[in-house]
Amino acid sequence: MEILEKKLASDFGIVFDNKSLLQTAFTHTSYANEHRFLNISHNERLEFLGDAVLQLVTSRYLFERYPEKPEGDLSKMRSMIVREESLAGFSRDCGFEEHIKLGKGEEKSGGRNRETILGDLFEAFLGALYLDKGLDTVEKFLDQVMISKVEAGEYERVKDYKTALQEELQVKGTVLIEYRIVAEDGPAHEKVFDVVVSVDGKNLSQGRGKSKKLAEQDAAKNALAQLGRG
């Protein structure tokens, strides 16, 4: 934790008063379960709090930054910013993956690079930071690691292919769109998923990705291309 504390101080000017909060934020359930005799707290409760704080800060920023955008557009932008892959990326940008405490099994299976774990870690850190320093400090931190990317237009350029496909297919009425995993390849820490998207039971296209969500987006993208809307 000492290395992490120095990094937070040098990179973001953050010094925790309650160091146990920081310790808990970086403790995965797998580590806590393997050391039950130590009565260690894990980061799931902080993740719950951090998720709410992130939603609030992001919503307020988008509301003030884009006064011309309707609620639907703001919701789409927020969902792209706070989705699992984005949060995992923020964790990596901060170098958080080097400091999370994992159980031996989770470590062996590549948990240190798993997007779900890193995304949850980022939210847990926000929860701890909020409790220790308050909302203003959280906003300043997110301005450094997240808002700068939004300002660069990264999330305006990201297309939600699943939503686009749904809108395209439902122009003439309601249809049943389903995504189904048909294959999984690679070791546990480097899984690749193949997903088929079907419409009213008829297979339309297939996609591939390093997570189920990414594979579904790829399948939707390929379906849109087939329909001449890609």
TrEMBL record:
PROSITE patterns tied to this protein: DS_RBD (PS50137), RNASE_3_1 (PS00517), RNASE_3_2 (PS50142)
Domain of life: Bacteria
Alphabetical UniProt keywords: Cytoplasm, Endonuclease, Hydrolase, Magnesium, Metal-binding, mRNA processing, Nuclease, RNA-binding, rRNA processing, rRNA-binding, tRNA processing
Catalytic reaction annotation: Endonucleolytic cleavage to 5'-phosphomonoester
GO-annotated molecular function: ribonuclease III activity
Chain residues that bind Mg(2+): E47, D120, E123
Entry-linked Gene3D superfamilies: 3.30.160.20, Ribonuclease III domain (1.10.1520.10)
Residue ranges occupied by any DRBM domain in the UniProt entry: 160-229
Reported cofactor(s): Mg(2+)
InterPro entries assigned to the protein according to its UniProt record, in alphabetical order: dsRBD_dom, RNase_III, RNase_III_dom, RNase_III_sf
Principal cellular location given in the protein's record: cytoplasm
Domain RNase III: 5-134
Enzyme type, top EC level: hydrolase
Family: Belongs to the ribonuclease III family.
Function text: Digests double-stranded RNA. Involved in the processing of primary rRNA transcript to yield the immediate precursors to the large and small rRNAs (23S and 16S). Processes some mRNAs, and tRNAs when they are encoded in the rRNA operon. Processes pre-crRNA and tracrRNA of type II CRISPR loci if present in the organism.
Name of protein: Ribonuclease 3
Organism, as annotated: Streptococcus dentapri
